[in-house]
Known about the structure:
The structure holds 2 protein chains of 2 kinds.
Chain A: H1 4-29, E1 40-47, E2 58-61, E3 64-74, E4 81-88, E5 99-104, E6 111-116, E7 129-130, E8 132-134, H2 139-161
Chain B: H1 2-31, H2 36-39, H3 42-51, H4 56-80, H5 87-125, H6 128-134, H7 139-177, H8 182-192, H9 195-222, H10 228-258
Helix pairs in contact in B: 1-7, 3-7, 4-5, 4-7, 5-7, 5-8, 5-9, 5-10, 7-9, 9-10
Amino acid sequence: xxxxxxxxxxxxxxxxxxxxxxxxxxxxxxxxxGFIQQEGYQISAxxxxxxxxxxxxxxxxxxxxxxxxxxIHLDPVSFRALVTMRINATVRQLPDDSSAAILTSGLLGDxxxxxxxxxxxxxxxxxxxxxxxxxxxxxxxxIGQFLFNVQSSRKxxxxxKSP
Amino acid sequence: xxxxxxDLGRSGLEWVRELGRAGxxxxxxxxxxxxxxxxxxxxxxxxxxxxxxxxxxxxxVSGLFIGMVxxxxxxxxxxxxxxxxxxxxxxxxxxxxxxxxVVTAILFAGRAGTALAAEIGLMQATAQISSMxxxxxxxxxxxxxxxxxxxxxxxxxxxxxxxxxxIYGAWLVGVQWLGFDSGTFWSNMxxxxxxxADVVNGIIKSIVFxxxxxxxxxxxGYFARPTSAGIANATTRTIVYSSLAVLGLDFVLxxxxxxxx
Lengths: 163, 261
């Protein structure tokens, strides 16, 4: 029979291993950062179509992560999607004529917001809204437009030949 | 003919009675928490040691191999679609949501549940439990409750350890052997695994399973017929019932969780 002391040490190590496992699952596997509220400020932007953008999607400038989407809802008056995002405190001076676009990483990857800074000397304040926005590219729409263009150009060329 | 109907009714009543006995036993075990003032946490920690720490080797080894196999199979299938970058999410999601809780619970039933049932059954057969009652020691409080709590505590912890070893097993095969990029593996995993929906739900499942498996083992042991055949029967029933209960409950819990409960 193992002594009580050894048993308790064993159980303690077991608990410790399980706690470590939970920490690994939380931070390494699921990339949890929700508990650590990062410093930052909120800005928003209204889009015509947000595609597959989700809460916690990335906000990037030149491909560098500078924040994340915190809230998405529909503006009930203008029927545009209102996206709120948190920008890290390190990026303090975003020119107020910057534009925001929803892009896709890779061909089938996640959507993210790309912000393109412009040259204005005044900066976005917390709570401000980005005015210049570009909606997400929807593949189906593009294909639809392409097919439509092909059809109409074919029609044009046949019409041009016939007379 | 009438006898047949009578038999049917009797077996139905017997079944209901058994359910009631299990309920009463559960009530007594839950509300007669082991005497902490007298023994401290000794009794429970002994059981966590016997059920949890001693099961670690089988859990770690099977977790490692399940992760490695998943990575190999996943790579084989994903490569056909040119999506082998998604190996990390595939392994992490399948382990965290399903394989971790279920496989750990079934292994735990085989490793610890049967041992519990046989131990308690033998105590019953050699009249240790009734002699305890003669000495005014409550066997439910002294023998059964620590075992139930021990299993209840151990299984979620074992599941956490299983999950981590399985994911590192997949990392071993995917990154070290098949030559994926380690950064891609982890960052794809992080972007698709959600802490609440995947990790926490897996833990909730394993808490439920821990409770059910130990309860079945303790019940089967306590009410085993006090013969060698009875004990054999009790251990067999423990593993059969707990595997079925785990698989069935897993379906119910998954349906509830996916339904946004």
